[in-house]
């Protein structure tokens, strides 16, 4: 074989051998074959990822819309939900978006009073249809993907402590203010079981609440609040001794109202504690019969608390002061039978009393028996006599006119709560801030509360 031919053949064989062992370019060949499916998978990944991101945004919108609907709690809850969803870019009826709301959704804890919001959005298919996916909906006659997000919320309630509670058992308007009352009720809210109207001043109360309509009472005014039941009626049954009235043997001397009326007996005029004519029932519980009139300043020294039950009579301070010593407590109870009797404090002096902090009448400074229906109205509360009271004043059937000042007792905590049938606060009425928190806890008083709608919260 010629040398030239041998060289060519040798070179060719050598190069073929190198080619067989050379792996350079293999990846390029493989990528050539794999490029199409890789691009398709990447496109599908982007498309599915976009569905996830949009669903997440819809869920955020649905959560906020459900909370808003529950917080709204009125007939406009659905509009409220759609308005909130629109702030997130999901406008009902626009760009294939639907926002629906319901106030009869099933609650996780039972019942069907929860609020639900569902947001749906149809998006066209892109790369996914190349691999044969047809979607779960149609859009303009073509396959599409329907994305859905749902949220469920309920309306929470908060308990608002009350310093004025008008029970409204007579059916009249419960709270009325006239003129410009100088009321300082910071931390002390008011509630009317019918309606409330404050003319010229909102009382400065954090909340003005009414079962019917609240007009101008309270910094925050809420109507349609559930009625509050009488919080202290049961005290009469457990704390007023059944034999209290019998101690009087049917004798109830009354102050003279006409020229020829007999004078009040000396036994019903007193300037010491306890009253000399009082019937002791033990445990610092005393019963006096008929009208009682102070003849001087009376200081009650009863560290464990005392109870004075006035049967079928008024307590006339007669320009004097009835006060509790430091560390002492007193409950004035007006009981007996309905008729021509007056069952209330009167006179031009001062009631400066702190309620007992324990016992059957814990937290009660003045207590009218709820069985009394006549002679219970008070026309000059806080003025005749002046009120300096720590504790509760319970007047469940009384029409009260508050015309003077109500301050805390000299030796008591900052706590004042009054429960009455209805109340009118005149322009001179001045109610000191009633601390229904720590102050009343220190006075041994369980403060009445009202349930007020709070914010919605997610439950699912």
Characterise the protein shown here.
This protein is an alpha/beta fold. It has 2 domains: 120 residues, no CATH class; 224 residues, no CATH class. It is 19% helix and 35% strand. It contains 5 helices and 28 strands. The chain has a 24-stranded mixed sheet that branches. The protein has a 4-stranded parallel sheet with strand order 11-14-17-20, with no helix packed on it. The termini are far apart. The mean pLDDT is 88.
The counted number of beta strands is 28
Task: Name the assembly state.
Answer: single chain
The share of residues in extended strands comes to: 25-35%
* Main structural class: alpha/beta
Instruction: Characterize the overall form.
Output: elongated
Average pLDDT figure: 88
Overall number of domains = 2
Helix content range of the residues, please? Answer: 10-25%
Uncertain spans, ≥5 residues at pLDDT below 50?
Answer: none
Major beta-sheet overview: 24 strands, mixed
Cα distance spanning the termini = 91 Å
Number of helical regions: 5
Compute the gyration radius: what is it? 40 Å
